[in-house]
Automatic annotation (TrEMBL):
Its main location: membrane. It is a multi-pass membrane protein. The lineage of its organism: Bacteria, Bacillati, Actinomycetota, Actinomycetes, Mycobacteriales. InterPro entries: BPD_transp_1_N (IPR045621), MetI-like (IPR000515), MetI-like_sf (IPR035906). Residues 95-300 form the ABC transmembrane type-1 domain. One of its GO terms (cellular component) is plasma membrane. Belongs to the binding-protein-dependent transport system permease family. It comes from Corynebacterium mendelii. Keywords: Cell membrane, Membrane, Transmembrane, Transmembrane helix, Transport. The chain crosses the membrane at residues 12-30, 95-117, 138-161, 235-262, 282-307. This is ABC transporter permease. GO terms for molecular function: dipeptide transmembrane transporter activity.
């Protein structure tokens, strides 16, 4: 088990390093001089030279890269070109908002997908099971931003049940916080729950055909009892992998949904930084999204190893 954890950790450390190089180089070859963006096209050469020295863009690429990585490691993300403020506290506040949104959306998607997908597998030859399968296929085809727009149109504009947009911190007003969280959470979770429902259904169907289910049935257990007692743990392994991929998709998909609902998260901050060509902010947020995605995959691989005893066996020497 320990050897497996160390192996995964080394592999993901290498992935983080490669990702940081890719993000750094891609933004360096993008057109536009950060100093000129910060000062404007009418700045004198002397002012531009001073600004480049201040930003460190006059240094060799290797020096710029290690300076950026060193800052990221210590929590110093640099200075925004547009506002001149330190990026670190701004990113911390926005990341907290995005984390709440993504976590609640993922929890909702799992809470819907596991029982619904299991029911669809057990009732696969009945009308309700077929209807669930068809509905999940339709849900997969609907992008999150379209679901967000439809929710705003129906629930906010026509019915007036919920606020159309905005964000209230949970400490300021818990009730308004929940009311403004419902629609973006549902918009993000709708597509993910549809995808995961399909995978849960497939995983349960595969487990139902295994020998240990037939053995449990021969001992007198009903099909539901055999599934709940012995099958769901085995079905959870492939579903967990899919859930990790969907969580990574949620992290990136929240960018557009935050914009639709005017939520001050990392997604909105990233889009604003792209529009204003605030390259340090773009670089920081993209790298943080990459780190979050890799961290999720690492955690799931460790959990997968813990759940599957075959993966914990040490190789023979």
């Amino acid at each position: 088990m320990l050897r497996s954890i160390v192996t995964h950790l080394l592999r993901y450390a290498a992935a983080v390093w490669v990702a940081s190089l890719v993000v750094f180089l891609l933004l360096r070859i993008a057109p536009g001089d950060p100093a000129e963006i910060a000062l404007g096209v009418g700045a004198t050469p002397e002012l531009l030279a001073d600004k480049r020295a201040q930003l460190g863009t006059d240094q060799p690429l290797a020096v710029q890269y290690f300076s950026w990585i060193g800052g990221m490691a210590t929590g110093d993300f640099g200075v925004s070109l547009t506002s001149g403020e330190n990026i670190s506290p701004l990113v911390a506040d926005r990341a907290a908002v995005s984390a709440i949104l993504v976590t609640t959306a993922m929890a909702l998607a799992i809470a819907v997908a596991v029982p619904v997908g299991t029911w669809a597998a057990m009732r696969r030859r009945h009308a309700d099971g077929i209807a669930i399968t068809a509905a999940s296929q339709i849900g997969i085809a609907i992008p999150s931003f379209l679901a967000a727009i439809l929710l705003v149109t129906v629930c906010a504009v026509h019915l007036g049940w919920l606020p159309a947009n905005g964000w209230v911190p949970p400490a300021a007003d818990p009730l308004q916080f929940v009311r403004r969280l419902i629609m973006p959470t549902v918009a993000l979770a709708a597509v993910q729950s549809a995808i995961m429902t399909r995978y849960v259904r497939s995983a349960v169907l595969e487990v139902l055909s295994d020998d240990f289910i037939r053995t449990a049935r021969a001992k007198g257990l009903s099909l539901w009892q055999a599934l709940l007692t012995h099958g769901l743990r085995n079905a959870a392994l492939p579903v967990m992998t899919v859930a990790a991929l969907q969580l990574a998709a949620l992290i990136t998909g929240a960018v557009v949904v935050e914009r639709v609902f005017v939520i001050p998260g990392l997604g909105s901050m990233l889009l604003d930084a792209v529009i204003t060509r605030d390259l340090p902010t773009v670089q920081t947020i993209v790298m943080l999204l990459v780190l979050a995605t890799l961290a999720v995959n690492f955690a799931v691989e460790i959990a997968y190893t813990a759940l599957d005893p075959r993966l914990r066996k040490e190789p023979l020497s």
